[in-house]
UniProtKB/TrEMBL annotation:
Residues 161-185, 406-465 are annotated as: Disordered. It comes from the Bacteria. It comes from Pseudonocardia abyssalis. InterPro entries: Endonuclease_MobA/VirD2. Residues 161-175 have a biased composition (Basic and acidic residues). This is MobA/VirD2-like nuclease domain-containing protein. Residues 55-152 form the MobA/VirD2-like nuclease domain.
Length: 465
């Protein structure tokens, strides 16, 4: 919540001296003109416009960053926040300390827990417009150093595991069309097609069979170098199909990473037999044991990634979203990715999980109807997600741990109340997890341990601060 806005730091050291004068009774009745004009002065001298360009360009010359402490952290004073602002600007390469000819900037404190920083990306001495280089990773590293020094909540490192979020234009367009944003839907479709396929051509064919538009990009040699995917009917004002490349959907959905995945898969000859829920449960139990007692020959990252395939397959057969698999798969998505977004190697257990996912998609569900077995499978999967979260947390992967916890909690909320108490049923006998030697856990199998979000963010905006 924004309240009591005040200037706490500025490029010239005047800091609170740049606080705008009040023009009325409201705390927001402020005379902003002098501050805005002073910030814009180097840009105006360089002949740059003071308004955002009308050609759709997003390369404005104002850099914006917000910094927030966690709710559990202590309140910092204005002097501490001013030091934080200067340290972030220096660490990100925006305004280095001791550089009098650097850009003009200002830090505004809107509330007790956060500040906003705006910098005009034009040097005062030369009038040269510049753009940050890898500013976000630098900003994250600087933020973590500040957190350690001040004893604040430590946030996760930037690890390239997050999927691309829909842009504002995508979201608004989808709302006008009365459907969800394209990017999350296309990401789910590409993941399903990747599980079914064995190579680029088959992958594109699967996407077309699912009702999407897809094309391969080939080099002069004819080799597939990339692909793009779009929703049927999603066109521009000029009538052109809207496409997204795989790398714009998620790090592990680029064509090179998909080819790496396909090269790892075992022999796929023969028909895909429909599995039973008991078979699936046994595979999941073995995966949990492998994550809990890591074997260097297995590779836990491979199991974690393949677990996402199983959840995707279960979600694809979760008609009407009544079982909660779709929600769990969406929440688990980031947990499945290794730092850097590279598809990890899989060992025997990871290969079993991938095979199970492929069979589930090909057969469109389980063999027979076994309500008790389905509940036991949910318990086993929730236990696996709990183990994955603990494993990720031990490696300081807060984002992935939180995602795995959230997925497990979703399954718990939807399913654990449905356990079949009838004597002789699989649920009454205990899940495969329990039969494998894990004690029955009262109440739930997954404990949600909230993780702090990365609090330092940045974005480029138009030229108006």
């Amino acid at each position: 919540m924004h309240r009591s806005p005040r200037v706490i730091a500025s490029w010239d050291g005047l800091d609170a001296g740049w606080q705008p004068e009040r023009t009325g009774p409201s705390e927001y009745d402020l005379q902003l003109g002098p501050l805005v004009d002073a910030l814009h002065a180097p840009a105006i001298a360089a002949g740059l416009p003071t308004r955002a360009p009308q050609n759709g360009s997003k390369r404005g010359y104002v850099w914006h960053c917000s910094a927030r402490v966690a709710a559990s952290d202590r309140t910092l004073d204005d002097g501490q926040w001013a030091d934080i602002a200067r340290e972030l600007l220096d660490g990100a390469g925006i305004a280095e300390r001791g550089d009098p000819g650097g850009p003009r900037w200002v830090a505004i404190r809107h509330a007790e827990d956060h500040i906003h920083i705006a910098a005009v990306l034009v040097r005062q001495d030369t009038g040269r417009r510049f753009w940050p280089h890898h500013d976000y990773p630098k900003l994250r590293a600087t933020a973590r150093a500040i957190e350690h020094r001040l004893g604040l909540t430590i946030t996760a490192v930037a690890d390239d595991t997050a999927a691309r979020r829909p842009g504002r234009g995508e979201t608004e367009k989808a709302a006008r069309q009365g459907r969800g944003p394209a990017r999350p839907e296309l990401r789910r479709a590409a993941h399903q097609a990747a599980i079914r396929a064995a190579g680029p051509e088959e992958f594109v064919a699967e996407l077309w069979a699912m009702g999407y538009r897809a094309e391969l990009r080939r080099g002069p040699s004819g080799d597939a170098l990339g692909y793009r995917i779009g929703r049927a009917g999603d066109i521009t004002a000029a009538g052109q199909q809207v496409f997204y490349s795989g790398s714009k959907l998620a790090p592990d959905l680029s064509l090179p990473q998909l080819c790496r995945r396909w090269a790892q898969n075992a022999d796929r000859s023969g028909p895909a037999e429909r599995p039973s829920s008991a078979e699936a449960e046994d595979v999941v139990v073995r995966a949990r044991v492998a994550v809990g007692t890591p074997d260097p020959q297995e590779g836990v990252d491979g199991i974690v990634h393949a677990t996402g395939d199983v959840l995707t397959a279960l979600a694809a057969n979760d008609r009407g979203h009544k079982q909660g698999w779709s929600d769990a798969a969406e929440r688990y998505e980031r947990a499945s990715r290794a730092p850097g977004g590279r598809v990890p190697d899989v060992g025997p257990v990871g290969a079993e999980l991938r095979s199970l996912a492929r069979r589930l998609l090909a057969a469109r569900g389980f063999r027979g109807k076994d309500a008790a077995g389905s509940v036991a499978l949910v318990i086993a999967v929730a236990g696996l997600l709990h183990e994955v979260a603990a494993w990720q947390r031990e490696r300081d992967r807060a984002h992935q741990a939180a995602a795995a916890d959230a997925a497990g909690a979703r399954l718990q909320a939807r399913h654990l109340a449905r356990r079949d108490p009838r004597p002789g049923s699989r649920a009454a006998q205990g899940s495969g997890r329990e039969r494998a030697g894990f004690p029955r856990e009262p109440g739930s199998t997954t404990q949600v341990v909230p993780e702090s979000e990365a609090r330092m963010t940045r974005r480029s905006t138009g030229p108006r601060p």
